[in-house]
Design a protein that fits this description.
about 180 residues, alpha+beta, Aminopeptidase, 6-stranded mixed beta sheet, 6 strands
C-alpha cells in the first residue's frame, strides 16, 4: 500500500482532512492516475504477497477499455477512502469525495473517476453522489491467475474481526464528468 500512497502524493492526488482543533487525521483519500499506472505499473517487488493479490484484483477495474485514458488526468482511480472511528458517521467521507469531484485541481477535471468499492459502505456512499456501479466481483469464488480462490475465507475473517457482515463482493464504480 505504501507504493500507492507514495504515487498518490507524487501525483498530487492524495487528500488528508485534519481536525483543526486537535490536529488529528479525520479522513484520507488515496487516488492515482490510471494512465500513469498503465505505463508505469506499481513495482511488484515493493508489494508483498498479500497486497499483490489485492492489487491484481483491483486492477480489473483499470481494464475497462471504454475509458482509454490518453494522458495524465483523464481517469483517476480512488484507491482508498478511510475515516477514523472518532470521525465516523459525520458525513466527512462523502464530503471529501464531493469536494474532490468539484474542487480538486486535477480530480475535478478528470473525464472519469473509478473506484473499486471493497467496503459496502463506500459503494452506498458513492452511489448516493452519482457514481454508477459497473459490475461486481464475487470474492468467495474469485480465482487468481494461478486458479487459487485467494479470498474464499474473507467473509468469515471479516466477521470474526467484527468488521463487516455478509461481505463477499467488490463493486466496480465509475463517475463520468
Amino acid at each position: 500500500m505504501r507504493c500507492a500512497v507514495e504515487r498518490s502524493a507524487e501525483e498530487n492526488l492524495g487528500i488528508i482532512c485534519v481536525d483543526q482543533d486537535t490536529g488529528k487525521i479525520a479522513v484520507s483519500l488515496v487516488s492515482y492516475d490510471v494512465y500513469n499506472a498503465k505505463h508505469k505499473p506499481f513495482s511488484p517487488e515493493r508489494i508483498n504477497g498479500g497486497l499483490q493479490k489485492i492489487f491484481e484484483l483491483l486492477e480489473l477495474n483499470e481494464r475497462d477499455e471504454t475509458l482509454n485514458p490518453q494522458k495524465f488526468g483523464d481517469v483517476i482511480e480512488i484507491l482508498a477512502l478511510a475515516c477514523t472511528k472518532e470521525y465516523s458517521g459525520l458525513g466527512l467521507s462523502k464530503s471529501t469525495v464531493e469536494w474532490a469531484m468539484k474542487n480538486h485541481p486535477i480530480i475535478s477535471k478528470a473525464k472519469a473517476l473509478t473506484a473499486s468499492g471493497t467496503n459496502p459502505t463506500t459503494r452506498i456512499l458513492l452511489e448516493k453522489i452519482g457514481w454508477e456501479t459497473q459490475g461486481t466481483l464475487d470474492l468467495l469464488n474469485y480465482q487468481d491467475h494461478n486458479g487459487e480462490k485467494t479470498f474464499a475465507s474473507i467473509k468469515q475473517e471479516l466477521e470474526k474481526r467484527n468488521l463487516f457482515q455478509n461481505y463477499q463482493e467488490i463493486a466496480y464504480l465509475r463517475y463520468s464528468n
